[in-house]
Amino acid sequence: MLWRLGHSYWRSPTRSPALHLVLDIPFACIKSRTFLLHSQWRSAAALKVATIQSSSTSVEVGLAHTGTRREAPQGVALGALENGNGRGKGESLVLAKPVTPDYTADPPENWLALIDALASPSVTKEEALERLDRFASEEGRCEYMICLSNRWHTARLALRLAESSQAERSVKLLRVCHKLGMRMKFRTYEDIAHRLANREHWSLIPSVAALARLHSGRSSAVLLNWRARAYIEMRHYVLLGDTLEEFRRHDIKPNRRTFHLLITGHIRNRDLGKARYYLQKMEEAGYVVDASTYAAVVSVYRSLGPDPVVCDQALEALQNVSARAATRILNSLMQFAIDAGDVHGVARVMSLFDQESSGVQSIIGDGGDFVPPIGECDPQTVGTSMSPSPDVSTLHRLISFMSKERDLPSVLQIFYRMQDAGIVPDSSIAAALVRAHLRVGNEATAVQIVADMCPPTVPLGLLVRIGFISGAPYPRRTPVIQSPLTVGVLNALLKGIIGPRGLNGLNCILQIMQIVGIKPDENTIKILLHYLDSTELARPRDIIRILRKLTFMTSSPTLKHVHKVLKGILRREKIRARGQDLLRSSVVTGASTPQRGPSQVSQKLTVSGDVADPTAGLAFPRVPNLRSLMRPVIRSLTSHGVRNDAAMYALRIRSDAVKGNTTRADEVLKEMISRGIHPNEYHFSALMTAYVTAGNLPAAHAVMRNAARSGVTPNAVMYTILLSGYARVRNPTMALHTFEEMIQAGITPDAPAIDTLVTAFLAARDFRSAKRLLLHLWSLVMPLPREQWHDSLKSLVKEFRSASLSRQRSWKDLSGQRGKMLRWKMSRVLRRWWHAAA
């Protein structure tokens, strides 16, 4: 302000000499270097904060009587300098400008440890000042001490820490500075919350919002919106419901983004009732439903399944939204098509992107096998006034879709053309490329992609242990991603290598995380639980114990973790209840097949009369103490307000199907639809299983026809369920008719379908037809050696099952040496996990 006044004065033609003399005094003081340094030292001394100068900016002391100069001793506090302590007789201080810290590098560990200690609520201001003086005298020079006396430096360091792996220390630094009496600018809290969101440190954002309110006595719409977004990402929907109350408490008017967050958050929680409630509140606040609202809704509607009405509204909104929002809408519509396996739907969405300016034509191919020629769907047919450009998220979805089809050449073609179009790939593209190579068994290239992203601190021997081949000739154009390594990339690699390399591969990934400074997340836990259940055949109670330990070290348990536990229990119940192993062995030997009805089904996994959240009414068995072990996990989900999702409803229907309770399975499906969740192939397959178990095959056929009318294309699993039903009732004629119907529908039969069809003829004791069918259909899944054509039927069936089907699990509890070895390996994993999470 003073500089502006002086500038206007000197440019004024009518300036007065008196005003000139008045302004000369402050100008001289401001320009004086001595005045600046003196003000800085007095400010620091008032806070009793020690600033230790670096060697290039040391405090020089001149001896007046001898003319000699010496440096002040290291570790002298500012208070001592202010009081004259540490200065000999006749000595004068020649102060130099302090050094600013290097904010591109991490602060020293001893200084970070000091911040951790000072941030404790038990440490008072006086104790904090004493520790600072002690640190200054013991540790020597540390340019980061200036951050405790200058809020500009504090803000820069806090922002740097928020983007690092030590993000929680940015919050501690704010607490320490406030304890020492420093008042930070309010914009600093908003910037830190933004940086934390970019690095997905959602658990720290509510603390930043609370500190801003505590330190400054106020809040802002930006901070409260970040707080609401953090609760959505942490799935804490109970606290999300207090958002509008927080706005009223601080007398802040919620904006359109606030309501969009509330609406989309409850849609992600499958709670359409509350989403409609906040939509009404948004209109009452004066914000009409516009195109941006439709864009926000369609971006999160995947949790409920594709809704044609929502998709049509989103397409109509394309002409009234920004280019960025239009890209988000098309990305969501593409994801709906990918989830349904609709190749032509993906092509239609891609045709809505800009064909020339963004180079879509060169990215997705020129009329190749994957997509029809661009232009099949004219953008004008949906009323778009502009064609948005694809972004990295668009191509990430496209690459993921092609990787599921195991089409690695198309994946690489999309990647290289994306680079040629000027789109810079990020870590999500790297994770998709890793998954694509692992799906086709190219583990070496997948590890090479991750190795190129690792910093030099990762030892080469650690990469070799997970499949890296040093000096091996790789393809001419191995994809190279110039992006920092993230937990998503390591999870993609872990999912592919944990099967062949076991827990040793997991230990290597955790060690890389520890070196790079990446913490395992909920997806890492899910991968480990799936491995323990499917490969190690761990007992459910052991899996639950491991889940509780991992979530304590990493994050809160999620509904996906409960899925893994329930799915393993239900699979065991299904095998015991139906006696599939006994059925297949008896029909091969010609013995009588025992029929088991619903009354013989094991009742270990109980269900309640309703579909209570969050487990859809599924209750864990009391023995062996599964319910008590799982109770804290369920209590955590309930306290967060988590509701049933589509997968949990599918598990509930499967549980009723195992027991043959078709009535209850129908009611669960109807209640799920009433909540706005659209059924998929898993729900219809589970309902068909219920009718097949009850022996009502016409009803199972009707369920598959209803699925086709609902937009769910029948797959090989649904037809295999029907084939198993006809095998149970010994009706090979209808089984063969159903198999022919599957082929006419364009569905390629897999090994389980062929095996179930042959089983139907074996159950009817038509061994000649069974052998002829097996020999005829064998080549559909694998080549048949010519020397085995004349083998017996029994040996052929055993050979086909051992070569094509997964090994049968005995589901016996681990005991003896194998159980001890697994527990020993898991103890090593838990120790490594603790270091990586810390």
From TrEMBL:
InterPro entries referenced in this protein's UniProt entry, alphabetically: PPR_rpt, TPR-like_helical_dom_sf
Keyword Transport among record annotations: no
Listed name of the protein: Pentacotripeptide-repeat region of PRORP domain-containing protein
Organism: Gloeophyllum trabeum (strain ATCC 11539 / FP-39264 / Madison 617) (Brown rot fungus)
Cross-referenced NCBIfam families: PPR (TIGR00756)
Region listing for Disordered, in residue ranges: 587-606
Top-level division of the source organism's lineage: Eukaryota
Keywords from the named record: Repeat
Quaternary structure note: Binds to mitochondrial small subunit 15S rRNA.
